[in-house]
Amino acid sequence: MLQNDTPPELVTTPADDLSVDVDRVFDTAAELFGVLATPLRLRILNSICTGEKSVSDIMSLVDSTQPNVSQHLKVLYQAGVVAKRRVGNLVYYRVQSEKAVQLCRTVCTQIAIELDDPESVSQTDRLARRAY
Q1: pTM of the prediction?
Q2: Could you report the per-residue pLDDT of 21-30, keeping only the tens digit for each?
């Protein structure tokens, strides 16, 4: 909290002289959240958090088809969340943006805690509002 107990805004800058276009920040954040808003993409990220994997390995881990996995990998790649390399006919994917994965990990861990033990988290500290 700030000195006057006012919660901070969503966008804060490290120095007063730094000029930030808040609309651009919100647009960029919304774009990233949109990329991460698909459960299959989160499962794909989860599957490569521990290291690089081929598309066929990812398909097995997330239990989806090659066209579907490839489509979602393309979105993640275009957003800069994952990187890829080709070896012959195989394409391998790995995490490119550790910050994006850290964000997903933080949110998913919090939701897992809430789902596992709903009484352990107060209503004001919850991310998941729906009853599951």
Answers
A1: 0.81
A2: 888 888 999 9
